Amino acid sequence: MADLEALSPNIKERLAALNGAELVCAMPTVATASGLRDAAARIRQALDGLAPGAKTVLMHPDGALPDAASAVEPDGPALLPFPILPVDQRPPAGQNLADTYRMVFDASHRLGARGCVVVGSDPALLSSRVLRWLIQPVLEQDFDLVTPCYARQRFQGLLTSAVVAPVTRALYGKRIRFPIGADFAFSARLIARELQLPTAGREGIPVWLASDAACTGLKIGQAQLGIPMPAQKDPPDVSAAVAQVLGPLFLDMERNAPCWQKVRASQSIPLFGTVGTPPDEAGAGAADVSRMVETFRLGYRNLQDVWSAVLPPATLVELKRLTSLAPADFRLPDELWARTIYDFALAHRQRVMNRDHLLRAMTPLYLAWVASYAAQVEAAVPTAVEQRLDRLGTAFEAQKPYLVSRWRWPDRFNP
Amino acid sequence: MWEQVQQALNESTTRVITGMADLLPGFVALLVALAVSSVFAWLLASLLRRFLRSIGFDARLKDWGLSGLADLSPGRSPTLLVARTAAWLVILVGFLIGVAAFNAAFTSELALRAFHYLPNVIAAVALFLVGTVLARFVARGVLISAVNHNLQYARLLSMGVRWLVLVLAAAMALEHLGIGGRIVELAFGILFGGIVLTLALAIGLGSKDLVSRSLERQTTKVAEEEPEPFRHL
User: Which is it for strands A78-82 and A56-61: parallel, antiparallel or unpaired?
Assistant: First the structure.
């Protein structure tokens, strides 16, 4: 885990010389002096009328901008070069996104900032108005966490749509559309809380930001950013993406079990900003899902030993029925998908087998969901896509008693 | 003459009966040793079972990532495996004690050889157990990976890898036991090579289209390929 104490003396001196700040803004993707100048100007514009004259510190990647100081006007935000990773991309091997968040939180805490914004998207895409929607709820309305609300593209961020968002909604009772993303705003309260929590298990994709805030009873909001999710390059193997997202999510479920077992129903989360024009996907056309359905069938034929150690017989029977469907008619019921996710979460907790094997063995099932979802939304308008995902979230909520029962009595409860 | 035959018969009968009478205490001692060791083994197994269950041994093994051991255990319970192994060891010791009652010199020699051989046996058993667990682990990983890559011969590939590891483990175990010598090495080489060749042929013939397409892409550098519409992260 990264620690400010381990940083170079220059950074520590710079941090001390700043002598406090009102707002810390971390922009790990700024790579040029002009980009830095532009980002500083946008921050200043965003704060005009919101917190005029508030001292702001802009954290940017160190090393890349030797002439950084000359890039920003004297009345702009103070600069703080830091060894931070781009939060919109998979970190290089051996490095952890959690370290970046931890470092930003630590700096913000030491500076005594009231709020902190992490902008992982390309800052050039975010207008000062959009930045304001991210910052304002924290500085003016006492919100503790503001999550991003991206313009949804129906086939982007599928793991978030299929698993992370509905699980967050069902478990923690918060209808957050994008619990994982690259752009967040945090209050000093949440930062102090995050710095107190143990770092063990908080690794990889930061699914714990929303769940920690929800379990601590802190106020959560969403900011309409109007841009698509930052383009991430998927790993060459889908199963690696599945393991990258579901591993941290299942660990988080295990850690927060006492909290989410008490939560009943869900509530909508305040949304700041106006909805922009949805991305044009008219030319997207029909997606070919036959290969995904074939992978699912192959998985059903070959992974019986693995799946039967995780899934109850009733679920296996339902999956068998799906193998006989043609790709055009392929539909995976939401309730079945929700129970499958819950069963895998439980198997992950019980260590039924090696955890990496377990997560990767879920890939054919996930591809079955993608095939089913793609067939349903390929011609849908954006509102219909949102409604479709809302129904999925409702199904996850409806199946939560099943999860709670299996979680509490894993040996006794086997329908 | 007839009297001499009769005397010889009487003497041999006496010798056999005396010999049997000499062996009888040994037999009784063997039976008693086996009975006592069985009772002791049962007690030990029972105590071990209770103790291991009280500390949640099976769950702990799972937590340590040794869930593969459950598949090798009776009733999928490593607790039972440990208890039964301990019981059989006690019975084996009882048997050796019983055998020692027949002839002290012979059994001392036997026990000495057995104890010299014991480290080899333990190493061989450990090697084979590790090999079995490793074979299952690797085979499952290969199977899952092959399915996720949509390979139709996923099971064949997984089975081949499993047998490769098992054959390797068995050959190493036999070498430790000193059984077979060169024959084992030769058989292992033939079997291992055979499996590799079979797999290579199966994969090569099964995926020739895939390989040719891949080579075609490499040579013609097709850049205008349709982008994948699905993004998972």
Answer: parallel
Task: Provide the 8-state DSSP code for A197.
Answer: S
Distance from CA of B62 to the nearest CA of A (A): 6
**Assigned CATH class of A9-272:** alpha beta
Rg (CA), chain B: 30
pLDDT by residue (tens digit) across A225-239?
888 877 666 677 889
The ipTM of this complex is: 0.84
Domain residue ranges in chain A: 9-272, 289-408
For residue A187, what is the enclosing H or E element? strand A183-187
Strands A183-187 and A115-119, by their bridges, are antiparallel
CA-nearest residue of chain A to B150? A295
pLDDT digits (tens, 9 = 90+) for A338-385: 999 999 999 999 888 889 999 999 999 999 999 999 988 887 888 888
Contact yes or no for A227/A121 (Cβ under 8 A): yes
Q: In a 10 Å sphere around its CB, with 0-12 CB exposed, 13-18 middle and 19+ buried, how is residue B150 labelled? A: middle
User: Could you tell me the pTM of the whole model?
Assistant: 0.79
Rounded Cα gap, residues A154 and A152, in angstroms: 6
Beta-carbon separation of A239 and B144 below 8 A? yes
Using a CB cutoff of 8 Å and minimum separation of 24, what contacts does B174-180 make? Answer: B174/B124, B176/B120, B176/B123, B176/B124, B176/B127, B177/B120, B177/B121, B177/B124, B178/B120
Residues 6+ apart with CB under 8 A from B70: B58, B61, B62, B76, B77, B78
Q: Do A155 and B231 touch (CB under 8 A)?
A: yes
Total beta-carbon pairs less than 8 A apart between chain A and chain B: 91
Backbone angles phi, psi at B122, to 5 degrees: -60, -45
Tokens 């999860």 sit at which residue? A403
Cα–Cα dist A303/A300, whole Å: 6
